[in-house]
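All the exercises in this workshop are built on plain-text protein records. A record pairs a protein's sequence with a compact description of its fold. Read left to right, the backbone structure tokens trace the chain's path through space. Once this layout is familiar, the rest of the handout is easier to follow. Here is such a record, shown just as it appears in the course material:
>
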Amino acid sequence: MKPNATLYIVSLLLAFVSHPVQAAEDVKITKLLQSTTTIEGKAIAYPPSDKAEMSALLVEIAPGKEIGLHMHPVPLVVYMLEGELDVEVADGGKHKIPAGKAFLEVVNTWHNGINRGDTPAKFLVVFAGEIGKSNLIRAGGK
């Protein structure tokens, strides 16, 4: 990149830093989550890769049903939209997640999500994964 172009880009960045863009009065921003640890208190770590991929899923579990024992090899954020979810971790940890709560799911740890309620449990899942690699591993390889 030419020195003049670099100087121009740096000037633009400094302008944004010194004068942050303000949200319009009719836009409401609510922080759902800011954390450095999973729901079990372990530090998050991004996969070392030059093939980073973000993906988002909308998951719905019927009343009385469960996801089944599984683990995630990458960091992920979960936001409960409706219902309630019980997350049970293989080491005995249990977490009841109500609608409106966001959390960082456990990584490389066997766990299960169970809907013990009378209504569907709906939640958004956002993975920080890697192209070509699965974000979910089921027990028994299924």
Notes: The chain has one domain: 23-141.
